[in-house]
């Protein structure tokens, strides 16, 4: 594997999950792969899980790890070509990227949607520049339109807990005070469609996702109807995608908060969320603390998804 930015890069999903479960049984079996190899993780945005789980996965594989927080201690980076750099940005990505590539073997990049320009976000201009100019295999640690390490961990978690071959998985919008990118819901939809689950997306009108990610999923505007018979409930907030409201918050309606009454409509569903989560906005204390909540094992599987991706990228170096 030479890059990891979307579900297509991982190939056959059954094989990827089988590899994940093998890695989970013995995390230190492939230490020879990472010996004398260096991972550089570059963060344009904050992180808890991605930072720690990816670093741990790299250490499990015997790698050295360097972390750069671009907004804390590094030069501010210009990302657009052709800009007259007379402002506060001291360095251009077009120099910084190959320099960073010269110090490492693999590069992970976190760069969220900025909501300033939909085309810039959906063309993944920052991530694509790393792929083009670093000279190294690049993987996404959440980009503008996708969060594939999270979605892979979500898939592993569902496969570990499902009780039927083709479970009903409902991704529901839920309220949040701020405008959040569509990367997690886009990516989750992409992976659930690829897994061929019975996949439903529930959201208020105005929160339609990019049809390229919705694919063949059933879309519901009645959250309660969507939740009926669900085996897994995946809650997430996102800002509007459709023009002219791209990046805007259209609703903070707590009628969409996932609570015990809504979970009672399901097939004794498991509750999932990628974290961090706003309690009593997205989900009530009662639901997230219930025995059906998978948020902690789901986060723990981030180490596993990252390790499979790093392992395959290291194998691709040989
Ligand atoms: N789920 C997730 O990516 O968490 P962080 O933003 O803390 O990395």
Automatic annotation (TrEMBL):
Domain Aspartate/ornithine carbamoyltransferase Asp/Orn-binding intervals = 184-310
Record: residues binding carbamoyl phosphate: 47-50, 75, 110, 147-150, 274-275, 302
- What reaction gets catalysed by this protein? N(2)-succinyl-L-ornithine + carbamoyl phosphate = N(2)-succinyl-L-citrulline + phosphate + H(+)
> Could you say which EC number(s) this protein's record lists?
2.1.3.11
At the top level, the lineage of the source is Bacteria
List the pathway annotation: Amino-acid biosynthesis; L-arginine biosynthesis
Ranges for domain Aspartate/ornithine carbamoyltransferase carbamoyl-P binding come to 12-160
Name one process (GO BP) from the record: L-arginine biosynthetic process via ornithine
GO MF terms here are: amino acid binding; ornithine carbamoyltransferase activity
The alphabetized UniProt keywords are: Amino-acid biosynthesis, Arginine biosynthesis, Transferase
Q: What InterPro entries does this protein's entry cite?
A: ArgF'-like, Asp/Orn_carbamoyltranf_P-bd, Asp/Orn_carbamoylTrfase, Asp/Orn_carbamoylTrfase_sf, Asp_carbamoyltransf_Asp/Orn-bd
According to its UniProt record, what is one Pfam family this protein matches? OTCace
Q: Any transmembrane segments, and where?
A: none
Keyword 4Fe-4S tagged:
no
What the entry lists under PANTHER family is as follows: ORNITHINE CARBAMOYLTRANSFERASE, MITOCHONDRIAL, ORNITHINE TRANSCARBAMYLASE, MITOCHONDRIAL
Q: What does the subunit comment say?
A: Homotrimer.
Return the similarity comment. Belongs to the aspartate/ornithine carbamoyltransferase superfamily. SOTCase family.
Q: Name it.
A: N-succinylornithine carbamoyltransferase
- Write the gene name: argF'
């Amino acid at each position: 594997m030479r890059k990891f930015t979307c579900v297509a890069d991982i190939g056959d999903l059954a094989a990827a999950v089988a590899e994940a479960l093998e890695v989970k049984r013995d995390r230190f079996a492939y230490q020879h792969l990472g010996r004398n190899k260096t991972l550089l993780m570059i963060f344009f945005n904050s992180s808890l899980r991605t930072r720690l789980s990816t670093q741990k996965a790299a250490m499990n594989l015997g790698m050295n790890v360097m972390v750069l927080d671009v907004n804390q201690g590094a030069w501010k980076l210009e990302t657009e070509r052709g800009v007259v750099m007379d402002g506060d940005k001291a360095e251009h990505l077009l120099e910084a990227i190959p320099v960073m590539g010269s110090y490492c073997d693999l590069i992970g990049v976190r760069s969220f949607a900025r909501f300033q320009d939909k085309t810039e976000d959906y063309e993944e201009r920052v991530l694509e520049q790393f792929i083009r100019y670093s000279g190294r295999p690049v993987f996404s640690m959440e980009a503008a339109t996708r969060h594939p390490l999270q979605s892979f961990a979500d898939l592993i978690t569902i496969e570990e807990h499902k009780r039927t071959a083709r479970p009903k998985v409902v991704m529901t919008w839920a309220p949040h005070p701020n405008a959040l990118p569509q990367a997690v819901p886009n990516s989750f939809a992409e992976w659930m469609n690829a897994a061929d689950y019975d996949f439903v997306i529930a959201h208020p009108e105005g929160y339609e996702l990019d049809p390229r990610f919705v694919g063949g999923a059933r879309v519901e505007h009645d959250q309660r109807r969507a939740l009926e018979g669900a085996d897994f409930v995946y809650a997430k907030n996102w800002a509007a995608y459709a023009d002219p409201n791209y990046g805007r918050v259209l609703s903070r309606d707590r009628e969409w908060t996932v609570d015990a009454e809504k979970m009672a409509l399901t097939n004794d569903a498991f509750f999932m969320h990628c974290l961090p989560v706003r309690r009593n906005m997205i989900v009530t204390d009662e639901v997230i603390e219930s025995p059906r909540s998978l948020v902690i094992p789901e986060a723990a599987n981030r180490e596993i998804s990252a390790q499979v991706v790093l392992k395959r990228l290291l194998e691709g170096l040989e």
